[in-house]
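Working notes for the structural subgroup meeting. M.R. asked for a predicted model of this chain before we commit to crystallization trials. I am recording the input and output together here so anyone reviewing the notebook later can reproduce the run.

Input as submitted:
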Amino acid sequence: MRVILSRGVGGIGYDPEGCGPPTVVIHVRPCPEIPAGWLREGVDVAIVDVTRNTVSAVDPAIKSSNLLNNLLAWQAARRLGVLEPILPNAQGRLTEGATSNVLLVRGSRVATPSLESGLLRGITRDLVLELARGDGIEVAEEDLAPEDLRGADEAFLTSTLKGILPIRRCDGWPIREGRPGPVTRRLMELFEARVQAETKAGSAPGSSSR
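Returned structure, recorded in token form:
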């Protein structure tokens, strides 16, 4: 379910004077099922040339429908034959995917780009960091370079619809052994347990079954 709020009916132009009242649109569709193979084997990503909006433009921290650069990144990912593009910021540091946050594992430590890098603070990202800390896993939010992702021991994406989705390859090269690692699998177990505890749905994240 997506809730969209606009300034309402009005004339064409930038001036909001005379527009309104605000329009609320609620869009509902079935939750797409995540293929079991993606969860079991992981997915491919690529670091693309399209950069994330800077904070001084359309702040990435705002949940906005202004998603042109995400669309351009998504199109670049399709040309490369990968599921998700990873967008750098203007300084070349990692930010997030077009529809997800990105996290990586080095040793037993989980790292993810800091909010200051320019990204949307995902609720699933926050939950995964909470679950990791609660399980005694060291967590850091910091500046990350593309080489950090390419050279990680493990990596995964997070989002409301994806849950935790392992990454097997970045830019065509495998992440370590090219399959979900022990830290990723442990966090997937913890995430699934939390989902079941809160929803009591008896089904996996992304599943349409009950």
